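As the work plan foresaw, the team has encoded backbone shapes as discrete tokens. One protein thus recorded appears below exactly as we store it.

:::
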Amino acid sequence: MKTGITTHVLDVTLGKPGAEIKVELWKITDTTRTFIANGITNDDGRIDTVLLEKVEDGEFELVFFVKEYFQRVEVENNFLTTIPIRFNTDKAQSHYHIPLLLSGWGYQTYRGS
């Protein structure tokens, strides 16, 4: 059984995983952001390590740094540079998977499995 907080990126414009994208995980408390972990997506669009080993109650933010990715894959006319996704967690849930579906003009996310 998977545990912790994980993510992956799919590029729907190119129809393939989003590789070599830097991702950071932050804990949000009132007006304070505390850095937890970071990683780079692999060729499958996934970060090889779990960003947070044990889920705790609270609000978190994943930040996807997509500007360099778009430049590397030569997507024209993109306007996204970073994508922050804030979400709440409940320690009663052992795993949160937050995928990012990405294009040059927009994105979508959901709670995965």
Notes: The helical segments are 67-73. The chain has one domain: 4-109. The radius of gyration is 14 Å. The CA atoms of residues 57 and 89 lie 5 Å apart.
